[in-house]
Amino acid sequence: MKIPRFIRTLSAPALLFAIVGLWTGPRAVAGTVKGTVHLPDVARATRLNQGYWRLENGNVPVRPSSGRSGTVVVLDGISGIHAPPPKTVTVEIAGLDAQPRVVVVGPGSVVEFKNIGKITHELSTPADSSMMPIERLNPGTFRHQKFGAPGGYLVRCSEYPHLTISVIVVDSPYYALVDDRGGFQMPSGVPDGKATLKVWSMGRWVHEEPIDTTGKQDLTVRVEAARNAKEPDAKDVDSKESDSSNSEAKDPETKGSTE
Amino acid sequence: MFLSKIWFILVAVAAGVALSIALTAPRPMAQKLEELEGQRLDRAQYAAEQLLKVDAHKWIDRVAKLGRDAILSEALDSASHGAGEIGVQHKTVQSRIRSLLPDLSTAGIATIAAIDGNGRVVGRVGEDEKEYGENIGGAEVIADALRGYLSDDVWGAGGHLVRVAGAPVLSKNRDRIVGALIIGAETGPQFAERLKRNLDMDVALLLRGKVVASTLDPAALGVLPGLVAQHKAEIADVKRTPAIPLDIGADTYLAVAAAFPGQASQQQGYYVLIGKKPAKADLTSLLVNTSARDLKWDTFPWISLVASILAAIAIGLLLQRLEVEAPIARMRRELRTLARGEATKMNDARYGGGFGGIARDINAAIEHHAMATSFSGAIAAGTSSAAVHGDAPVAGSAFATGGLFTAPSLSPFAAPPAAVAFSPPPAPAFAPPPPAAFVPPAFPTASRPPPKTPSIPPAPASIFGLAPSEEPEPIDEDHHVQEVYLQFLAAKQQCGESAAGLTLERFRQRLEENRSALMTKHVCRTVRFSVYVKDGKASLRATPVK
C-alpha cells in the first residue's frame, strides 16, 4: 500500500516531536499543595517555658496570638528534585528577640547571627554542641555558621533560653511557613507521587506523615500534643554531613566591617 | 563434763546470736531513718514548691498594683506612641518607681523595669538602672504582659537567678495596654536563707552547673551540680530527684533537687534542699553516739541483763561443780584412803567419763605394781640380773625375734608372727628347763610389801642354752607365760618403760599367738620365751623347742 506523500512528509516531524516530548516534557504535576496545620494548645501558648502563673488582667481582653509563628511545613522524600542552592541569611538579634526566628535554607547555607542590640548573647546548638559550640556574641558583633546537612537545628541563647532561632536545612524546594491561621501553601509544581510531610514547630519536628500528592490539593494536618514531638538532636543530622568549620564570631571593631 | 560442754556451747551460740543481732539490727534501723529523712526532704521540697508558687503570686500582685499607677501609665502610653523624649520619660518613670518603692533591697527586689507597648525599656530601677531604650519585648514574660497576661518566670542571666513577675500597664481609661512592668526578685543568698528558715534545712541554688547561693559553704558543694546533673532525667520526669547522698567533709547529707520553673529550667536552674543524713549505723558509731540517757535504769534493761548474765554464770559454775570439782574432790579423798592403806583399790564405778578412766588406770597401775613387786621379791634370792642383760641370743638359741618384741609397751604384739626371722639351730634342739627358782606370785597381791631387791629377775639358764636336757620334759605353758610376763614387767620397770595396759591376759594371748605361728612354721613341740634388754628396752626372744 502506498502511503500518501503528505502523510509521509508530516509523520517525520510528528514522530520527532513525540520523541522529544517524551524525553524532555514536563512530569505530571499535582498542582498546588496546601492545607491547614492544627497545633495543640500547648504550642499555641507561645511560651516555651511557663512559670507558676499566667493570669488574665481582667480589664482588657488578652491579645490573640497565633502561636503558629515559627511553624514550617516541609515536603520531603520527593525524588527527582533539586535542593535549594546555598545562600547566606542574616538573623538580627535585637535585645531579647531575633528576626527572623525561623530560617529555611538549602544545604551548605550560611546563617549570619548579628547582634544589633545592647545585650550579650551566647549562642549554640544545645542538641549538638560540637556543631555550634557556645560563643559569646557581644553587642555589635556577628557570627557565621554553615549548615551543611539537611535537618532541623535549634540555635539557642544560653543566657536567655527563650531566644531561639530555628534553622531548617531542606533538600527540597517544597516548604512553606504556616500563617497565623495555620494555613500553608506549597510552591507550585509539586510532582505527583509519594512524599513525607514534616511539621517543625516550637523548635522541633512535631509531626511527620506520608502523603500522596497526586490530586491532593488541600491537606489537614493535626499535630498531637507531644506524642510525635521530636527534639532536634544529633540523629537528625548525623547521617549526613554537617559542616561547622565555617563557624566564626567577628567583631567589626577589631576585624573590619560586617558582610 | 557432758553438761558443762553443752552449756558452754549454748552460751557461745547465744553470744554469737546476740553479736549478730547487734551487728545487723542497726542497718534496717538506719535504712528506716534514711527513708524518713528522705520523706522529710520530699515534704520540704513540696513545701518549697508551694512557697515559690505563693511567692510568685505575691510578686505578680505587687507588680500589678504598681502598674495601676497613673503616672507610670501615662509615661508608658506616651512612650508607646513615640511622643516625647525617652530620656525625660526614663527619668519620670524612674523617679516615680523610687517614690513608690523607696527601699528595694528591704523588699527583696533586685530590679524593676517599665516597658512601653513596643517592648522598649523606658525606665529601670535597681540593677542596670542607667540602661534604657533596649527592646526586651522578646522575653516571654514581657511578651505575655504586653498581650495582657500577668505571669511569672525565673531568669538565669549573668550568673544570677532572678524570679521575675510581669503585668500589663493599662491606659488611664483602662481600655488598652500601654506597656508592662516587671519586677525581678532577689534569688540569691537572702532567698536561700529565707527558704532555710521556713523549711528548717539547708538550701543551695544552682545555675548552669554552678552553685550561685547556699546556706552551706559553697566551696564544699563542688560536687553537688554534678550529682544533680546525673538525675536530670528524673527531674524532667517527676520534677525532682530522689534523696541523693552527699558527702561534705566528714558529714553526710541527703539532698533533693528540683528545677525552677520558666527559663531557668533550660539553664540547669535548680534549688536543692539539703538535710543531714542520720548517723552511721555500724556498731562503733552507735556506741560512740550512746549517751548517758540511754543507759539510765528506766531506758536500759539493766536488771534483765545482769540477771541473765548472773544466771548464765551460776549455771556454768554449778555444772562445773557437779561434773569436775566434786569428782576431783571425791577422787582425792579416795586416793588418800588408798595411801593410808585403808583400801586396796579405787571404786571406779563411782566415776563417770574421764574420771572413771583415770580411776580404772589407777587401779590397773596398782595391780601391776603389786604383781611386779611380789614377783621381784620372790626371785631376788636365786637369780642373777646379769643374765638378763645378754644382748644377743646365745649359741643354741637360734630363734631371734628381731624387732618383733623389742618395741616398748604393746607395740611388739602388733607385729605379725610371720615377721619372725628363722634360722635352724646348728645343734640339736633342746628345751629349756623350767625355772627352778621362780615361784609365781599370787595374782594379784596388792597387799604384799614391796620387794627390797628390785633387780630384773634373771631368765632361767635353760633359756640361754646353758643347760640343755637330753630328753624333753613336760612344759607348764601357763606357768611359763606368767613367769615371762613378770620378767618382762620387771625388765620394763628396770628400763623405765611404762607397762600401762599390759595385762597378763593380753600378754598371754599375744604369746600364744606367736607360739602357734612359730610352731607351725618350724614344726616344733613348743616355743619358749625369754626376756632380755636391748638398746635400753625390754625385749622378748622366742626359742622353738623340738
Q: Any low-confidence stretches of chain A, pLDDT <50, length ≥5?
A: 20-26, 227-259
Radius of gyration of chain A: 24 Å
In what range is the share of β-strand residues of chain B? 15-25%
Q: CATH homologous superfamily name of chain A?
A: Cupredoxins -  blue copper proteins
End-to-end Cα distance of chain B: 57 Å
Helix percentage of chain A: 10-25%
- Overall geometry of chain B comes to rod-shaped
Total DSSP helices of chain B: 14
Number of domain modules of chain A: 1
Average pLDDT of chain B, rounded to a whole number, is 81
Order of helices and strands of chain A: HEHEEEEEEEEEEEEEEEEHEH
For this structure, the quaternary state is heterodimer
What's the SSE blueprint?
The complex is a heterodimer of chains A (259) and B (546).
Chain A lengths: L4 H20 L9 E5 L2 H4 L9 E3 L15 E5 L11 E7 L2 E3 L2 E4 L3 E7 L5 E4 L10 E3 L4 E6 L3 E7 L6 E6 L5 E3 L5 E3 L8 E8 L2 E9 L5 E5 L11 H4 L10 E3 L1 H4 L4
Parallel strand pairs in A: 1-17, 4-7, 6-12
Antiparallel strand pairs in A: 1-14, 3-13, 3-15, 4-5, 7-10, 8-9, 8-11, 10-18, 11-12, 15-16
Chain B lengths: L1 H23 L1 H42 L2 H11 L5 H15 L3 H4 L1 E8 L4 E6 L13 H8 L1 E7 L6 E9 L6 E10 L2 H11 L2 E6 L2 E5 L9 H6 L2 H7 L5 E5 L2 E9 L10 E7 L6 H6 L13 H38 L13 H27 L97 H19 L8 H19 L3 E9 L2 E9 L1
Antiparallel strand pairs in B: 1-2, 1-5, 3-4, 4-5, 6-7, 6-10, 8-9, 9-10, 11-12
